[in-house]
Amino acid sequence: MKKRLVALFAIMIPLVAVLSGCKGSGSQETITAVGSSAAQPLVELAGEEFSKNNPNEYVNVQGGGTGTGLSQIQQGAVNIGNSDLYAEQKKDIDASKLVDHRIAAVGMIPVVNKDVKVKSLTIKQLRQIFSGQVTNWKEVGGQDLPITIINRADGSGTRAAFESDVMDGTPFVRSQEQDSSGMVRQIVYNTAGSISYLAMPYLNNTVKTVNVNGIEPTIENIENNKWKIWSYEHLYTKGKPTGMTKEFLDFIMTEHVQTNVVKKMNYVPINEMKYEKDYKGNITPVSKGVK
Question: What is the pTM of this model?
Answer without folding.
Answer: 0.84
